[in-house]
What does this fold into?
Amino acid sequence: MQPFLFATGIENSYPVIALADGSRRRVDEMEKTGHYARWREDLGLVDQLGIGVLRYGPPYYRTHLGPGRYDWDFADQAFGEIERLGITPIVDLCHFGVPDWLGDFQNPDFPRYFAEYAEAFARRFPWVTLYTPVNEMYVAANFSARLGLWNECLRSDRAFVTATTHLVKANILASEAILKVQPYSKFIQSESSEYFHAAEPAAMRLTAHMNELRFLALDLNYGHDVCGTMYEFLMDNGMSREDYHFFLDRNVKDFSIMGNDYYATNERIVYPDGNMFVCEMFGYYVITKQYYDRYGLPVMHTETNNRADGRDEKDSRIWLEQQWANVVRLKQDGVPIVGFTWYSLVDQVDWDSALTGDNGNVNRYGLFDLDRKIRPVGEAYRTLIETWSGQVNSGLMCLRR
It folds into this structure.
């Protein structure tokens, strides 16, 4: 039986944003949080807490320099230390951005070049078996092509469908390329698990569409035939029948663990005019059960933190306990949930503006602060792992109660 995966992650987002003066700039969270200077110390913190699994990846835009050209210097050092410490990495190969020479997610060449990169990584680090090839495909497409915040900075359904098509195709081709090198690989597909609530009857049609849209990237990735109205939406916005059948015929479901990310911001009340506000109602259990019922795959809770700056440290610990209680209940009710993640290891910077503002705002989401001093939630997570490891790995929690 595979041990339960207690994990954290080192935030490695690197989208390009548009500035008010029309210029564009890369935002790199590993640079903002000091990880490039303190990577060895950070990896030691993972080991110090007794966390066996780390969501982590080298910066794609710095590593893939052009077709067939790579700079492995940072990856060699970091992954050498990860291997030395005995930490199991879940390798995050693309996190919200691409190298400048590839442009953005509208580029139809992105999938094949990304698959080339994934295969090259797998050949260089053949001992790695767990991957998230493309992180949060729905969020990457939504923020880049529907909300106009990152990368291509577009705001249209057609751009969103194009970005989704390329992101999911890249994910599948990269998975297939990795499997050629390391046939024992598993793909833990971290994806935002969301739900939209209708504020009134007039909002029900819009809300139903948004609740289908939240599944789209995973539907395509796992070869799940979409409903008729979603198929019309895809065809009306540029997806070809050939592309659609690529997803039906070429998926990686048999090698996958479904990763569900959940924050207090993942649920929204929707009004008929499209306005919405955040309101946590169902929680991780109910929403993850929806995803599990749809795909029938093993599940991992792949991201959470309290996402609430300015609160007392106590709130982070309460959020940790709440999320863990949801995991325990799912496992007791027969859902094959195999892991849990507090994201991230250290505090983040400027996520309160979705990385679009360069304000230096420290977001207190980490197990450690940016001085690498442990937070109370870090102590609580260490205790949780020590307390629950034997239970979750014994199989006793799989019994219905």
